[in-house]
């Protein structure tokens, strides 16, 4: 036996590791039909919402302004009608389903087994999944915006709005994608191959039911902005620069918390 | 230097102890045949070494460093169960993804190299889901070889391979070992393992029953005289005269264990009992027989 192998323990930098992992995740995202299906779904949601608003049923007249398809007039955590609920926040419901299927496939295919036997760090995995999932939800927000604008025009409702507030609302909701993505990634790391449970849980949390329930008890209070759903609702048509900062703070803090917790779980539990 | 050193390793799943105080030493450059029955803890041990599952106790050192050290991981190639590939991607794209995770520089060149090694050059553009079991196994080996790792952990890599695949596998592993790569390989196909392994570890019930080099195994394997006689009383006669006599159903021959000479036994049967021997030869038990004996003794 010659035993001539020279051992070189490489220490790839954080950016090298993350670049590799992001490259893989973005490649996967752009090569999965799932992403495009959800992008189209996001564009169709406002059309369905506006059709309901134009009908003669209970939902008739729920919008008075075309931009209400994008965001509610004011931050109402207690929902009294569908018009206050049916807006861009619905992207986060469908986003959760998409993220669950996307991450669940990592476990189902055994990809994580290949990944975690390399020098990949668990925190890199969490961060990469969060960023890619956030990106996909931002894309869904964009197509929702396009679909919403077209649907708004179709309803014949007025488009009169404070442009700055509208921009802050849209920006705020897009920023919230990061926080939601980290929550969904965290849930999927907990349930791993049981991604049916992940989908169900992401759906429930994405609807904001826990926060809506809390709001029913404590009323419309700004304290609810500490939650992802609270800040998402806070990004409304009366938003300003402060709203964007609140969304940014909420999203980043929760993303950090869920990333740390997810990494701890990945380090402590059996991966595959 | 030892590539793998495991001390008192334990892994429990609920109430079940899958690995129970296991000790293991794999020298650098060895081809270590890891043998055991189904459910004996081989795959669990391999997953523990690769960091896929967390130990309940004990320690694992790779080249003297903690196995959780991410930098050490850059030197490990793994095939555990099936390769973790996306079924709808081509073989090439799956390998590109793994090359990106490994941070390989000349990734295209490297992928071509490993695919050529396992004779899968032509399958690069096939979707992974369309590959046969044998092809998937070869691709899994190519995955493990990406980046030229210093340690290969292979769980049942020969399963599903045809004769040519097994030969290629033997050549690759022997060549890698010659260059100093350490190979930890578990397999139930002991005949194949025997052709390449330089060291062995036999595990049972999560415990290491014994570890030995190929030379030690060879010295430990008893010799026997195998014979065929045309008299049914031959077995009774031999059993009275010799300590260990067994009938090998597969070959239809009697085996007399011990350091006896074939001529002496033939003479003994013919001259003292009038039994003519039709075939006789001296042989040594192989790894499979040694292993079966060991398992039988354990029971």
Structural class of chain B: alpha/beta
- Percentage of residues in helical conformation of chain A: 55-70%
Low-confidence stretches of chain B: none
Biggest interface, CB < 8 A: A-B, 39 and 46 residues
Distinct helical segment count of chain B:
11
End-to-end CA span of chain A: 35 Å
Q: Give me the CATH fold name of the largest domain in chain B.
A: Rossmann fold
Q: Describe the largest sheet of chain B.
A: 6 strands, mixed
Shape of chain A: elongated
State the assembly state of the protein chains.
heterodimer
Q: Tell me about the biggest sheet of chain A? A: none
Structural class of chain A: mainly alpha
Could you characterize what this model shows?
The complex is a heterodimer of chains A (272) and B (299). Chain A is mostly helical. Chain A has helices at 14-30, 33-54, 82-85, 90-108, 111-115, 122-155, 163-191, 195-207, 209-218, 228-234, 241-268. Chain A has one domain (17-268). Chain A is 69% helix and 0% strand. Chain B is α/β, with parallel strands linked by helices and 299 residues long. Chain B folds into two domains: 2-219, Rossmann fold (3-Layer(aba) Sandwich), CATH 3.40.50.300; 221-298, Alpha-Beta Plaits (2-Layer Sandwich), CATH 3.30.70. Chain B contains eleven helices and 14 strands. Chain B has helices at residues 42-50, 70-73, 91-102, 107-117, 133-145, 163-178, 190-196, 214-220, 234-241, 262-273, 287-298; strands spanning 2-13, 16-27, 31-36, 57-62, 65-66, 76-79, 151-155, 182-186, 199-204, 207-213, 223-229, 245-248, 253-257, 277-284. In chain B, the strands form three sheets. Chain B has a six-stranded mixed β-sheet with strand order 6-7-8-3-9-10, with helices on both faces. In chain B, strands 2-1-4-5 form a four-stranded antiparallel β-sheet, covered by helices on one side. The radius of gyration of chain B is 23 Å and the shape is elongated. The A-B interface holds A 1-5, 7-12, 16-17, 20-21, 23-24, 27-28, 31, 105, 109-121, 268-272 and B 28-30, 47, 50-54, 63, 65, 69-76, 78, 80-87, 89, 93, 96-98, 100-103, 143, 150, 153, 177-181, 198.
């Amino acid at each position: 036996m010659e035993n001539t192998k020279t051992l070189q323990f490489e220490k790839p930098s954080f950016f090298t590791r993350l670049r590799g992992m992001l490259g893989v995740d973005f490649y996967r995202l752009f090569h999965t039909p799932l992403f495009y299906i959800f992008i189209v779904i996001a564009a169709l949601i406002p059309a369905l919402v506006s059709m309901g608003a134009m009908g003669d049923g209970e939902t008739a007249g729920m919008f008075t302004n075309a931009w209400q398809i994008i965001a509610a007039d004011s931050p109402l955590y207690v929902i009294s009608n569908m018009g206050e609920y049916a807006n861009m926040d619905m992207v986060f419901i469908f986003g959760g389903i998409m993220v669950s299927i996307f991450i669940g496939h990592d476990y189902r295919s055994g990809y994580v087994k290949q990944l975690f036997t390399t020098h990949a760090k668990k925190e890199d995995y969490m961060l990469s999944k969060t960023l890619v999932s956030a990106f996909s939800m931002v894309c869904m927000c964009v197509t929702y915006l396009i679909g919403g604008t077209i649907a708004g025009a179709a309803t014949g409702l007025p488009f009169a709005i404070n442009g700055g507030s509208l921009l802050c609302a849209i920006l705020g909701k897009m920023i919230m994608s990061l926080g939601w993505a980290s929550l969904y990634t965290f849930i999927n790391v907990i349930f791993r191959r049981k991604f049916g449970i992940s989908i169900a849980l992401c759906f429930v949390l994405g609807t904001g039911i826990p926060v809506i329930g809390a709001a029913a008890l404590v009323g419309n209070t700004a304290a609810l902005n500490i939650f992802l759903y609270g800040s998402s609702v806070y990004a409304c048509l009366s938003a300003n620069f402060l709203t964007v900062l609140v969304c940014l703070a909420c999203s980043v803090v929760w993303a950090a918390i869920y990333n740390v917790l997810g990494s701890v779980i990945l380090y402590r539990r059996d991966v595959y | 230097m030892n590539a793998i050193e495991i001390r008192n390793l334990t892994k429990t799943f609920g109430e079940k102890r899958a690995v129970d105080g296991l000790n293991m030493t794999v020298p650098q450059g060895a081809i270590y045949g890891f043998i055991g029955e189904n459910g004996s803890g081989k795959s669990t041990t391999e997953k523990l070494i690769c960091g896929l599952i967390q130990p309940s106790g004990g320690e694992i050192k790779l080249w003297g460093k903690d196995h959780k050290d991410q930098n050490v991981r850059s030197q490990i190639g793994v095939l555990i169960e099936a390769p973790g590939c996306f079924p709808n991607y081509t073989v090439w794209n799956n390998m590109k993804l793994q090359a990106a995770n490994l941070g390989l520089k000349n990734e295209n060149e490297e992928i071509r190299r490993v695919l050529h090694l396992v004779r899968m050059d032509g399958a690069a553009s096939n979707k992974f889901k369309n590959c046969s079991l044998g092809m998937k196994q070869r691709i899994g080996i190519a995955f493990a070889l990406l980046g030229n790792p210093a340690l290969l952990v292979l769980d049942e890599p020969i399963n599903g391979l045809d004769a040519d695949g097994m030969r290629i596998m033997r050549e690759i592993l022997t060549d890698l070992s010659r260059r100093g790569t350490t190979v930890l390989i578990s397999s139930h196909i002991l005949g194949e393992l025997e052709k390449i392994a330089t060291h062995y570890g036999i595990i049972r019930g999560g415990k290491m029953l014994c570890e030995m080099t190929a030379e030690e195994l060879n010295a430990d394997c008893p010799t026997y005289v195998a014979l065929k006689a045309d008299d049914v009383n031959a077995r009774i006669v031999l059993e009275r005269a010799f300590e260990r006599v067994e009938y090998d159903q597969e070959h239809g021959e009697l085996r007399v264990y011990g350091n006896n000479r074939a001529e002496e036994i033939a003479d003994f049967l013919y001259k003292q009992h009038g039994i003519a021997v039709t075939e006789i030869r001296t042989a040594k038990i192989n790894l499979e027989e040694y292993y079966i004996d060991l398992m039988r003794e354990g029971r």
